[in-house]
Amino acid sequence: MIIETEGLTKTYRMGTTEVHALRGASLRVEAGEFVALMGPSGSGKSTMMHLLGCLDTPTAGRYLLEGRDVSTLSNDERARVRNARIGFIFQTFNLLPRLTALDNVALPLLYRGHNGYVRQHAAEALERVGLSQRAGHRPTEMSGGERQRVAIARALVADPALILADEPTGNLDSKTGADLMRLLVELCAEGRTILIVTHNANVAAHARRTVQMQDGQIMNGTLAKVDNQG
Question: Domain range holding 210?
Answer without folding.
Answer: 32-57+73-218
